[in-house]
Fold these 4 entries.
Entry 1:
Amino acid sequence: MAVGVRELSKKLGSIRLKLKVKTIFLLTKAHDSDLIGLTRNITEWLLSKERDTYYTVYVENTLEQNRMFDAPGLLSKDPSHEGRLNYWDNELCKKQPHLFDFAVTLGGDGTLLYASWLFQRIVPPVLSFALGSLGFLTKFDYADYQDTLTTAFKDGITVSLRLRFEATIMRTQTARDDKKHNLVEELIGVEAENNLTHKPDGSYTILNDIVVDRGPNPTMSSTELFMDEKFMTTVQADGVCVATPTGSTAYNLAAGGSLCHPENPVILVTAICAHTLSFRPVVLPDTVVLRAGVPYGARTSSWASFDGRERVELHPGDYVTISASRYPFANVMPQGSSSEDWIRSISRTLNWNSRQRQKSFKEWEEQNLDKKAGGLKE
């Protein structure tokens, strides 16, 4: 499945997709007064009769009663707005993702990550206006929103399919205080023979990273890593960060992991403050299934988070499976080379490899010096 998504992503990156857009999903920071006003501007522009198409616009349900957004005022401006301004909630995104033809976000990378979180399976193409702090993923300037959206709807879009992970929490069915059990033996022995010792307890699709850490415990965590049916290693550290290429510039980078171009089909594994100097970040192919578990003999439980959300406690014997998702994130990109755009973004946001250029040597020429000395003697 990961290979199929990769091939499709390569094809989509070189063509313009013309979409028949009628229903538009708007996402913003509903608590930010500045962004609420900007969201209202876009909503009013999309609902205007001057558009070639009568768009249906969905905004977050918290804006329905928001005085600054002033939904009644929008509806009273033109009778044609009635029935075309609607409201979404988490349940609608979960159950009816096909309802939306196109998504627009106003904010930073966190807002775009929230869009990924809302659409756990199918994601409409997402065009993001940069109104946040950094902006690795938000590619478009809000000041040009009318031209940007007009061009996208009329001439088509270029899409980058970003790899997402599917993570499933697996709970042990064995007594936790039974010290005789061994997680390694269970996962590559008993479970490999289809005698299941664990049951699933929730699944998440993430765009950035999955972190298994010590949580509120004062001592370091112990995490056993498995790749497919093989035991990799036991990590003694504050935690382990498993990141997508998109998430390489987030927690992964802060923990000492490598920057990674988003088109690389890989899984990045980085320890957080490892207790050994020899542990180095590992890059794995996206075709493997990774498992990160808490050994039965661990002193404390660990905690897992998914794109910084849903903190879940992992007790001794529990583990998380991580694999490439069948549902990539469709990120709308500006026209041009994606590699060039990525280099610009890390240079702009991280000042990557930025330093004063080294001065060149001024060659010392002995012959010229002799001539000057001879002239002085004359």
Entry 2:
Amino acid sequence: EEEAAPAAAEKTLFTLTLKSFEAAAKPKVIKEIKQMLGLSLVESKKFVESVPKTMKEGVPKDEREKIIESMKALGAVVGGFLSNALIKTCMPDLEA
């Protein structure tokens, strides 16, 4: 049973939220969101201007860390938390 725990940890998925960004970094953040999410320039601008906003759901831990670091380098703050689907699977009695 102890061997199952690492495998479960590898399958942990996260939801990433763009929380904030430095004003001077706004153009770079918009460009990165456009590329990352496949949005148009106008959609990306609206997305960035409506922070906090969910960026991606169901992101594996390794990808989550890369996204957080790349956004941090641009001057943005991204938070990552366990996806609701996983929480409901692990804790079915928990109210969303």
Entry 3:
Amino acid sequence: MAFKAKLVTAKEVLRPIEHLRRYSAPVSGAIPASKQKYIPTSGTYPKGFLATGIHVGVKPTNIHTPDLALLASEVPCSGAAVFTKNKFQAAPVVISRQVLQRCSGEGIRAIIINSGCANAVTGKQGLEDASSMAHAVDECFQNPSKSTPPPQQEPDSVPSSTLVMSTGVIGQRLPISKILSAIPTAHSSLSSSHTNWLLAARAICTTDTFPKLLSRTFTLPSSPGTTYSLAGMTKGAGMIHPNMATLLGMLFTDAPIPTKTLQPLLTHAVDRSFNAISVDGDTSTNDTLSFLANGAAGGNPISSLDSEDGKAITEIVTAFTQQLSQLVIRDGEGATKFVRVRVTNSQSFADAQKIASTIARSPLPRGGSTGENERELRADGWE
């Protein structure tokens, strides 16, 4: 019996490996060439907002990558947020919700975010750490010339005007002294430049392979001669499934939107964007998406979403959050396909959302899309 031997080259052996999807950015921190197209080279950012991202070393293994972001307004803002519906909510979620409740969404000045540690499942000490981060930022605005960090404070010692977010490893305590010592440095490096906005977007990343940042300008019917700006950043690559997931997001605008309008506006937009995406079907403990509006560009306050301006801003913000949330899918852990589920002729938005979510989580269409088989799914009967 004769056998034929085939010589296999090293290139042929390694070819399948070339198509493997990295689950996190390369150790060097370099952004994959295929993702460079998603990173803006310039931006149009809202008046009165400043940003920065600095290196703290929250994780001991991080020796140079920014991991503390600070975004702030030069004037007090209206603030709104939506949070995870996970029953186990991380300390930053609890504190940020309390901040908004205490001030009824008025007078918010900043958002402080660390990556590398989620400050989740950390008990009372975790709450104190999250509160101390917010207080430290408040102190920077109250005493801008002070370069030393304030002492760690009890969670309810003074009202706070700063929202706090954390993302990273669950079950570990923050290196809080290191973070508090770095906050004055972050405050002093705030800037409106595109470079600083991009640094902030980079600082909130964990397993993301690229920073996710968008900005745009717009006008409103009542003030056609006034140009407004809207900016947003987000992070997330794994544990992505409604309602949100291991996901943080921040929106900023210089349009005059009172809190009573801002909260329903954000909820409407998120239901049609960040709450309509899925990577792996898992949810998380830290999800937060906030929206700050400082009115620095002037114009008439948008007092109702039913007004002409209200309808216009609803359409603008919803489309913007959809674009921003899609960047999360583009960077999904293990994802090789971008699939959009479209539901038509549904009796209600809630019904359509439930149908689309069912399809997105099902192994059947997932397997079909992975195999690149073109199919039409009829969800009502799965015909």
Entry 4:
Amino acid sequence: MLITCGCQHLKQEMKCNASKSGEGNSKKALSCDDECARLERNRKLALALNVDPEAQKDDHIPYSTETLKMFRENVKWSQEQEREFRVFATDDTEKRLRFKAMPSHQRAFLHSLAQDFGLDSESMDPEPHRHVAVFKTPRFVSPPTKTLKECVRIQSNAEAAAASLLEEQRRLRSNNEAYNGFLLKHLRFGLTIDTLRSDLTPQFNATPGLAFDISWLPTEEIVIKAKPATPWTRIEASAIEAALKAMKAPVAAIVSMNRLAETCQLCTLDASLNILRRGLEDEGASDGWNRVASKAVGPRSAPPQRGVGEKSVYTVLGSRVKDAKRKQEEYKKALAEEVPVDDWAEEVRREEMREAAVEDSGGT
């Protein structure tokens, strides 16, 4: 069990030791110290001066973000618990409030709400009987004047107003700020900044007043940001935009022909390379080059023409292979038809006579 002092500032856990013959420690209490006296004086002073800091700000939210988040998850149940807190807080005779056993996420809401009210809270007993007890302490003055529901509404209105303001600022900024770079999307696999710079350097050199920084974005895109060529050179943003629009067509042509990326478009970048404005893919190209270049294909060459009667090299090679196969088949057939000879000496003599006859016939 938990015993406290009269103002509930000091707390100490003790064994109950209650039995049929005695009350044990159930009625024991701690003595208040100097800190308890100081907190009590501050509370009385705040009540005497009617100090209510929350009332000075209409949009002030006296609850933590975690409390409001848990309230949104279960509004009806949370309102019931808040009502019990307010009844307990406004009753000067009550010093302790016990809640029934409940799951851990509901106990977490009670602890968070108690802290917002300026109350102390403790979880007591093991599961499944674990419950929350709330105590008044000298730091408690009065409950918050706004309910949780009112604060959720104030928070929602503030979030909506902030989102609307941010969108309006982004729209005005994007409409007023000029283009200062190029955005390359759907890049070629294995593309490096050195390769890209090497291919685009001739076009960059054609604009001597500007320098170009090439950087990767976390979105696997590449941005090319234009800036004055020297730190002491001052160029108006409108002049940079005009130069980039003039460069748009040739840069897109190089990107497409070298297969560097699928799309190239104008964009507006801030100092952190955040894209504030994106142009159309064909913006700045009056002749519609991007639409043509994006469909470009490699040059095709016609097959060479042969003269009349000239044989193709494939035909000549094919005929030679065919003749070699035919001779090999004839040789195998002759070997198969050859009759075995019993008398080799007689066969040699006959062969010599045939050769001599051939020589005689050739001589005549």
